[in-house]
Amino acid sequence: MPLSFDYGMNQVTTALLRGGTAVLHNHLFARDVIAATAKHRITGLGCVPPLWIQLAALPWLPTITDHLRYITNTGGHMPRDTLDKLRAALPKTKPFLMYGLTEAFRSTYLPPAEVDRRPDSIGKAIPNAEILVVRPDGTPCAADEPGELVHRGVHVALGYWNDPEKTAERYRPVPGQDPGLVIPELAVWSGDTVRRDAEGFLYFVGRRDEMIKTSGYRVSPTELEEAIYAMNLVGEVAAFGVTHPQLGQAIVVVAAERLRPDVTAEAIRTECQKRLPTFQVPQHIEIVPTALPRNPNGKIDRKQLATERAKLFAP
């Protein structure tokens, strides 16, 4: 992760604060990360899901799990299939599944002891933070009712640098507080949709601005991508919506890195038809010969892919 990414910089500051060693490593291929982990006897490794997906498909030296005490995931939901592969390769290594906001840094984590029980969860609030799940009017959601994640606590930033308009959009009063307060407490309204189960554990559904609206349904690209990863046909996948004259938006999937030479777009579609409701089956599937584009934080850039295919269904 680049040092311009808050969690990338945190790897350096945390190591220095705790008296550890931070290994700065510019990797070209995912296998270089595994080699560096073995060479330097790394004890903690943090990555974003696109890199974990690549690492999970590679062989790990069996001795690495003896010194790699923990791994962390941030910047998006780690697919279940990826997590299962990593845990099989690193049986002694504890996984910490997390969710965070640049505007508040870290919001939630799932303790490793809970991973077997709820591997799809992003956990509960970190210390000194409170996570609310609310409806558009600010009222709290019921158990398992999807709503917007709102973060309050000491880690919340003051706003965006020289951007009062965006600050007013994201930093709003904490729901439910006394409207008569002279200086109301501000929280970060994340724009992310989550749900909280009856025991208080949170589950990521998707970013509100990335949800695909097709034929009157709302489809989470994250859930669709995870379903395709579980097919073990391709190494990278991105799902997104593009304008469609009849559907509102059509579901488009772009994949890379065939895991078998005979994998085709039609094979992926056939599996989608077997495993998914009809409204979630993509209208267009494409396999590209190169890796999917990344944004500066190392995440797959869905917006770029969608922009490049914006006129796919133009009349």
Give the structural class: alpha+beta
Number of strands: 15
The total domain count is 3
- DSSP summary: helix tally: 9
CATH class of the largest domain: Alpha Beta
Largest sheet: 5 strands, mixed
Strand order, largest beta sheet: 1-2-3-4-5
Mean pLDDT: 91
Descriptors:
5-stranded mixed sheet; 29% strand; alpha+beta; 25% helix; 5-stranded antiparallel sheet; Rossmann fold; 15 strands; 9 helices; 3 domains; GMP Synthetase, Chain A, domain 3; single chain; Luciferase, domain 3; 315 residues
Question: Can you describe what's shown?
Answer:
Helix content is 25%, strand content 29%. It has 315 residues and is an alpha+beta fold. A five-stranded mixed β-sheet has the order 1-2-3-4-5. Helix 3 crosses helix 5 (80-89). It is globular, with a radius of gyration of 20 Å.
